[in-house]
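Hello again,

I reread your note about wanting to compare the complex against the isolated chains. To keep things tidy I'm splitting this into two emails, and this first one only covers the full assembly. Below are the input lines as submitted, including protein chains and any nucleic acid or small-molecule components. They are followed by the predicted structure of everything together. The single-chain runs will come separately.
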Amino acid sequence: MIGVVGGGAWGTALAQVYAQAGHDVLLWAREHEVIEAVNGAHENKIFLPGVTLDKKIKATADLSHMGEKQAILLVTPAQHVRHAMGVIGRWLPAGRPVVICAKGIELQSGKMLSDAALEEAPQAEIAVLTGPTFASEIVRGLPSAVTLAAGTMEAAEKICALLTSRNLRPYASDDLTGAQIGGAVKNVIAIACGIVAGKGLGESGRAALLTRGLAEIARLSEKLGARRETLMGMCGVGDLMLTCSSMQSRNYSLGFMLGQGRTLEQILGERKSVTEGVSTAQALMVMAKQHGIDMPVARAVCDIVTGESSIDAAISALLDRPLRTEKA
Amino acid sequence: MIGVVGGGAWGTALAQVYAQAGHDVLLWAREHEVIEAVNGAHENKIFLPGVTLDKKIKATADLSHMGEKQAILLVTPAQHVRHAMGVIGRWLPAGRPVVICAKGIELQSGKMLSDAALEEAPQAEIAVLTGPTFASEIVRGLPSAVTLAAGTMEAAEKICALLTSRNLRPYASDDLTGAQIGGAVKNVIAIACGIVAGKGLGESGRAALLTRGLAEIARLSEKLGARRETLMGMCGVGDLMLTCSSMQSRNYSLGFMLGQGRTLEQILGERKSVTEGVSTAQALMVMAKQHGIDMPVARAVCDIVTGESSIDAAISALLDRPLRTEKA
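Full-complex prediction:
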């Protein structure tokens, strides 16, 4: 039996994937209307409408039974991971896998989500599931692959064996840091790519910007002890490619609308879901400063979303930077 | 003064970029109508219509003056690079830069284009210019960046200084092998991604396939002596991302139409330009066999374009492969 904490689109899609793979699934959701709709009409009408959910999914408002599950998937917004982990931690046995499926960096501390989670529940076996996935596709059974990273390869492989399904294939990794940095920062790079597309600057320029963004991710990851090769996988290049090229991405589409001249307040005001890149851009600046890493693309996004720079000024500044090597 | 050998869309766009940067440009084209249109109406009506070309571009049918230029850009189809180099080589002084802008692998030998070129004109300073660029965007002055690789960093930096323009920014590299393998193989991966999109298998699956394709490129490149980090740059991830996500790409759009059920003959019969991935897929199998590299995505594309496998059978075979690590 698998626990899923978070009844948004991705949490609901993961619940469906594992229910269809034969598991009983307990889905915790914050909103009462989600719980009622999942248990009654077998549909998450708010966050993933139009999909009939498997009856093996039971929704609940109570986190106290999560510790009894074989594995718990944590699918809250990134900034809620610490709090959710604190609550679950009260009932969590030692060594129980908790798989973080959120992507981001903690704003208050500049820490990775796995570190924040471990501070709240040090007895957990923390893992992350991350890669190029759109909930609306995965819930329909379309094929996908992700990186599943844990503290050791043994733990990662054990969790992979449990969380393999026909259409969601996890690759095991023991690079928790590399897996998380890629997934977090790509949301920021996606906002930048969206802006460039929204301004009509072309697909070539967007691809160049994505590539410079990947160089920033690589510099930061290496400084934090990750392996560069991890970024070549689903959690890095794969996720970056998907997020930076599709209007299905909340972050890319937010950037696109910014590029077309709308304000951040207008765009966010119309959304029910969190657009992670907005807070990650700011959290990233905390982290980059702590570690002395140059991240000009992320800095430009941060300046734009905080109102410190206009889009045109930020783009000019990026284009006028002197060229160094591709690694620098 | 710069020489450009090849009057297709990309050759014409490069001629325009460097003419606008202040260089006189001599553009060799195979087709008489291209030469007449460029010299008369200042437009390449066949391959890049709708763009008024700079008057500093002169078109010619005569290759014998190319050796007098400061640098020669070789922008023929990949399978014509050896022949063109043999002709130019007769008049080429020692150490003169010849920058290969084609992307592919020689079908007859399974060799990299730089190796084929050097066999024909060993006195040349061979370089490659490669990255995420659509001719139609670059010719309009939209921003872009590429990798410019040569045998030494000193040579690469010298050529970069000559070939820098306001909207086409080259990053210097001394990894000739890495720069070429990325650009060649991505055309094959793009066909695969197009097929998946044409079959309606979703953006998540396409991103996963691209990522597995990158792992194949990395395995082959490393075996050939390239550095893995080169693939993180414009010539690798950048180009792969652009080519695998846009209908502007000839290779991606060919795959897309195959995925929708059209035949290779129908699609190629309607095209004036070469779709490099079709021959590269076959050349790659020669190269992969020589070096003992497992390339299942490229193999699937090769089997599909040669008629040895149906699309559905090839996709099933890929999805049913046992998972190993992301590197393997």
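For quick reference: Residues 176-198 of chain B form the longest helix (23 residues).

B.
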